[in-house]
Automatic annotation (TrEMBL):
Keywords: Kinase, Phosphoprotein, Transferase. This is histidine kinase. Its EC number is 2.7.13.3. Residues 2-119 form the Response regulatory domain. SUPFAM superfamilies: ATPase domain of HSP90 chaperone/DNA topoisomerase II/histidine kinase, CheY-like. The modification 4-aspartylphosphate is found at D52. InterPro entries: CheY-like_superfamily, HATPase_C_sf, HATPase_dom, His_kinase_dom, HisK_dim/P_dom, Sig_transdc_His_kin-like_C, Sig_transdc_resp-reg_receiver. It catalyses: ATP + protein L-histidine = ADP + protein N-phospho-L-histidine. Residues 141-358 form the Histidine kinase domain. One of its GO terms (molecular function) is phosphorelay sensor kinase activity.
Length: 358
């Protein structure tokens, strides 16, 4: 993390630079307030600053005051260093925007601790900002994804109220199917949002029990076969017998369902999806291979993040929340397992996850 040291006394500045470099910080120096202000308002500013109060304009307190009104999302922790010891001066410095205050001569270990506190504060602020950005993204995408199916349902309701079905009753089944599809998509999105909320808050609880992964995988494949049949996709299996071991069957069902449904979504009609279960190195490995368009290396880097959608759309216009793989990753990692993907453009993809056999 970058640390700004701003002091017009070259001896103090050199000493601060020497000790702070030992603490592992990247040091930026400023000999006056102008240089300090320029560094703090640059495109890539330091996130920590030790500012001398008394130095050529603007002084340390004035810089703290200005920073309160500087329009930058990045939080910078400001420590004032001065020989002033009066309580009134300390209050004035803190009221002006300083986050901490240390008097000269200072105790080195005290300064190190105060800088370390500042570093932790900056990291906490960054996490808070990231969480806020995720929350805002949640709201934007949820609003967008809920709007379309709601619009379908509203439009169908208007058709029903218009009396059209009395004239053409055969259209009723199609309208009911569209209502069902829209409602299911909204339910899927809401369930995914709730899962992400639980996981991100650290409240994901696993209900583990000795369970047969062979039986569970077979059941989930049977469930997926009716979706695959709509696209004339065959699901081929190769399942090695593994004795029951401890995991959460409901949560692992979510992972399996997501990987198989994705394989079906992104595979062309009449193609093949393969599902394997193997035991290796004390782990149960599940592999799902598809014959889809493949995934670029850039897409693979962000594949398991929230609200990430692939560059290639589903082959039959299927809906996707962009949350499934992020949820799957968290569930697998909560079991001390691992999940990943191997793919090249034009060669399909192989998703896999491994659970320790306990």
């Amino acid at each position: 993390m970058k640390l700004l040291i701003a002091d017009d006394d070259p001896t103090i500045r050199a000493y601060l630079k020497h000790i702070a470099a030992k603490w592992g910080y990247d040091i930026i120096e400023a000999v006056n307030g102008v240089q300090a202000w320029s560094a703090l308002t640059s495109e890539d500013p330091p996130r920590l600053a030790i500012l001398d109060w008394v130095m050529p304009e603007p002084d340390g307190v004035e810089i703290c005051r200005r920073m309160q009104y500087h329009a930058d999302e990045r939080f910078i922790y400001l420590i004032l260093l001065t020989s002033k010891t009066e309580k009134q001066s300390i209050v004035h410095a803190l009221d002006s925007g300083a986050h901490d205050y240390l008097t000269k001569p200072f105790y080195v270990n005290e300064l190190r601790s105060r800088v370390a506190v500042g570093k932790r504060f900056v990291e906490a602020q960054d996490k808070l900002r990231e969480s806020n950005e995720i929350k805002n993204k949640f709201l934007r995408i949820a609003a967008h994804d809920l709007r379309n199916p709601l619009a379908v349902i509203i439009n169908i309701a208007q058709v029903l109220r218009s009396g059209l079905l009395r004239e053409s009753p055969e259209k009723g089944d199609d309208l009911l199917m569209r209502i069902d599809q829209s409602a299911r998509h909204m339910l899927s999105l809401v369930n995914d949002l709730l899962d992400v909320s639980i996981i991100e808050s650290g409240h994901l609880k696993l209900s583990t029990a000795a369970t047969s992964l062979n039986t569970l995988l077979t059941q989930r494949i049977q469930f997926a076969e009716h979706l695959a049949a709509k696209k004339q996709i065959t699901i081929q299996t190769e399942i090695e017998e593994i004795p029951p071991f401890s995991f959460d069957p409901n949560r692992i069902s979510q992972v399996i369902d997501n990987l198989i449904s994705n394989a079906v979504k992104y595979s062309p009609k009449g193609s093949l999806v393969q599902v394997f279960l193997k035991r290796k190195d004390g782990k149960a490995w599940v592999f799902v291979r598809d014959q889809g368009p493949g995934i670029s290396s850039e897409d693979q880097k962000r594949l398991f993040g929230e609200f990430q959608r692939l560059g290639s759309p589903p082959t039959d216009g299927e809906a996707s929340t962009g949350l499934g793989l992020a949820i799957a990753k968290k569930i697998v990692e909560a079991h001390n397992g691992r999940i990943g993907v191997q793919s090249r453009i034009g060669s399909g993809a192989i998703f896999s996850f491994a659970l320790p056999i306990l």
